[in-house]
Specification:
The complex is a heterodimer of chains A (about 150) and B (about 500).
Chain A: H1 5-25, H2 39-57, H3 71-94, H4 96-110, H5 116-137
Chain B: H1 3-14, H2 17-35, H3 41-48, H4 57-82, H5 91-102, H6 106-139, H7 144-156, H8 158-161, H9 166-180, E1 183-184, E2 191-192, H10 206-225, H11 244-266, H12 272-286, H13 298-314, H14 316-322, H15 328-339, H16 346-351, H17 353-383, H18 389-408, H19 412-429, H20 435-457, H21 463-467, H22 469-492
Antiparallel strand pairs in B: 1-2
Helix pairs in contact in B: 1-17, 2-3, 2-4, 2-17, 3-4, 3-10, 3-15, 4-5, 4-6, 4-13, 4-15, 4-17, 5-6, 5-13, 6-11, 6-13, 6-14, 6-17, 7-20, 7-22, 9-20, 10-18, 10-19, 11-12, 11-13, 12-13, 15-20
The chains are: A mainly alpha (about 150), B mainly alpha (about 500).
InterPro entries (chain A): DUF1468 (IPR009936)
Pfam family, one (chain A): TctB
Keywords (chain A): Membrane, Transmembrane, Transmembrane helix
């Protein structure tokens, strides 16, 4: 039954629509409001149900049915995602400069860049430029963290 | 302020030192970003928003407009040099542009593209100048019912925004709309879909979605694909000079497509991409030597380049005069305006004439910049494509995270950025178009508001929509814009 990619996606969307409708119905309703806060969400949930049903029965093209990502690329991608999570987790405690320098260096390294000196110079200079641009020119304060400036 | 007076004050802004510098920065950055295969004008504008935070809105918008048409121009450069269109609006450019480059006439092809873009863009701006105020003066009488109907038209444009499956485009739109319902409901104060998270109470920031769904998702694709393909940029682009006969050949398509492209650009949903394809097809049909198309025909290159730039100007008409975006790109521009505290719409023309005309005037200057500065710089700018991809990718990601953080000073938004990046990436893998998502995310909130305002005025009666002839006419247009593409796709398949 779940042979094509479209069908798998349709089932996933069905689940999302049902969850969304469940939470939409649980929104409190008020008297004297001609159209309540849950009205539109309910319409949207039903629309998604209907559309994913149509998708379920739609013919999928052959190309569409193949999701070809090789393992190394997938690992690289997951590595980048992990680096983004680490960036967000330490941005405020360590400061913009340190976190960005580490991010640029390791992200480039992870993606296969092996000229370490150039990498390090760029990883230091670019965040420094952004930092000065934001804090001095645009008057937007970025997290200072453990740095003295 | 009258039209001419307004335009003069607009030129004053655009010709100020600040104005010129930022048009130039915008055009240059747009050209570069648009040139990178995968990164289109939506990403270009989204990436530039953080830079404009502290700016005067007029200057910021002047820069964004520069980024927009710079990206369209940059897209054509990579179409010609690499046969890898930077954006979908320049796919048709590659048909004849790349064969010319292969014949060693890359310089000529770039010059034709730049001049056609200039003509299309400039004619488009003149038409924009004429029509936007006219439309704004009509739209000033619009109440909530008319606005609701108008937004419905813009939303149904999703049908024409979709390049593949219509159902997928609508699903993408509905999901975008669902994300617009997150946060405190303005009318009743009920928190919706926040799951107890205070960070979600004010809703999801548009920039998070724009950067995630476009820039980050595109980066994910670059990570997967970029290392396989080797860049073989034509280092020697040859002479940029055009002969008299070249110019003569360009005359016809440039004139026709300036107008046709503009009209297509004004229509919601049909942007630069559709304009460029229609332009190409029309010129091929009109040509006495259609067999030359696809083999390096000058007409075949002029047509899509003129049309896509004229459409770019055309797309500003509904954005500036009605406050309604008709495409993914203008939706992001609208979001950028809202971030800057500007509410586009018919009142913009009355309340902030300097901004309204400043943008239009800056577009003239931007087009001139594209022609006289970018053209000779192209060989050098294209060298930027040689920056190692891993470095480029990490810099772009850092920039996205910085942009998202600087808008809310909350690291929660960086996690959200990642989530939307993954959603955008998966959508692309499964061939769900992303522009309908962002369009309905932006329009969704506004649409719900106008629907509820209308029904509050009428105390719940739906008659309010039937009483307004404008709203009724717009409903019919909305209905047709769903039915016609669906019917067409049926008859094709």
């Amino acid at each position: 039954m779940l042979k094509t990619l479209n069908r798998k996606i349709a089932v996933l969307l069905w689940c999302i629509a049902i969850l969304y409708l469940f939470f939409a119905y649980r929104l409190p309703s008020y008297a004297y409001v001609p159209i309540d806060s849950n009205a539109l969400p309910i319409i949207l949930g039903i629309l998604l149900l209907v559309l994913s049903t149509i998708l379920f029965f739609e013919k999928g093209d052959v190309e569409n049915d193949k999701l070809n990502i090789n393992k190394t690329d997938l690992l690289k991608l997951l590595g980048v995602f992990l680096l983004i999570v680490l960036y967000a987790s330490f941005l405020e405690s360590l400061g913009f400069l340190i976190v960005s320098t580490f991010f640029i260096f390791f992200c480039s390294y992870l993606l296969g860049y092996r000229k370490h000196v150039i990498n390090a110079v760029i990883a230091i200079l670019v965040p420094l430029t952004f930092y000065l641009l934001f804090t001095s020119a645009l008057q937007i304060r970025l997290p200072q963290g453990v740095m003295p400036f | 302020m009258g039209g001419l007076e307004g335009l003069l004050s607009g030129f004053q802004v655009a010709f100020s030192v600040e104005g010129i510098i930022f048009v130039f920065i915008g055009v240059l950055a747009g050209t570069f970003i648009g040139m990178l295969p995968g990164l289109g004008p939506i990403s270009a504008i989204a990436v530039m928003i953080p830079i404009s935070y502290g700016f005067d809105p007029t200057i910021a918008l002047v820069m964004m407009a520069g980024v927009y048409y710079g990206a369209v121009f940059g897209g054509s450069t990579s179409s010609i040099l690499l046969n890898a269109p930077g954006i979908s609006g320049t796919v048709a450019t590659a048909f004849d542009g790349h064969p010319l480059a292969k014949q060693g006439k890359a310089g000529k092809a770039l010059a034709i593209a730049a001049i056609s873009s200039f003509i299309g863009g400039t004619v488009g701006i003149v038409l924009l100048m004429l029509f936007a105020p006219m439309l704004a003066s009509v739209a000033i009488a619009f109440g909530p019912p008319e606005y609701f109907a108008l937004m419905l038209v813009a939303l149904t444009a999703i049908a024409s925004l979709s390049e593949g499956s219509l159902v997928k485009a609508f699903i993408s739109g509905v999901i975008g709309f669902m994300f617009a319902t997150v946060g405190i409901d303005a009318q009743t104060g009920t928190p919706r879909f926040t799951f107890g998270m205070t960070n979600l109470l004010s809703g999801i920031e548009f920039l998070v979605i724009a950067l995630g769904l476009f820039a980050l998702a595109e980066i994910c694709f670059l990570i997967i694909n970029s290392f396989k393909e080797k860049n073989n940029i034509h280092q020697n682009i040859g002479s940029l000079k055009l002969t008299k006969s070249d110019l003569k050949e360009m005359k016809g398509p440039a004139t026709r497509q300036s107008f046709l492209g503009f009209i297509i650009g004004v229509l919601p949903g049909a942007g630069a991409t559709i304009a460029s394809f229609i332009g190409y097809i029309v010129e091929k049909k009109l040509s006495k030597r259609p067999e030359q198309f696809g083999k390096g025909s000058i007409k075949g290159l002029t047509a899509p380049e003129t049309a896509n730039n004229a459409a770019t100007s055309g797309a500003f008409v509904p954005l500036l005069s009605l406050g309604i975006p008709g495409s993914g790109t203008t939706a992001v521009l609208l979001g950028a305006l809202l971030v800057l505290g500007v509410q586009p719409g018919p009142l913009l023309f009355e309340d902030e004439p300097t901004l309204f005309w400043g943008v239009i005037a800056s577009m003239y200057i931007g087009n001139v910049f594209l022609l006289i500065l970018n053209l000779p710089l192209i060989p050098y700018i294209s060298k930027l494509l040689l920056i190692p991809r891993p470095l480029l990718i990490s810099l772009v990601i850092t920039f996205c995270m910085l942009g998202v953080y600087a808008i809310s000073f909350n690291t929660f938004d960086i996690y959200l950025l990642l989530i939307f990046g993954v959603i955008g990436f998966l959508m692309r893998l499964a061939r769900f178009p992303a522009p309908p998502f962002i369009l309905s995310f932006i329009l969704g909130g506004m649409m719900e508001q106008s629907l509820r305002q209308s029904l509050t005025i009428s105390e719940g009666g739906l008659g309010i929509f039937l009483e307004s002839p404008i709203a009724m006419a717009l409903f019919i247009v909305a209905l047709l814009s769903i039915v016609i593409p669906a019917f067409k796709k049926k008859t094709i398949t």
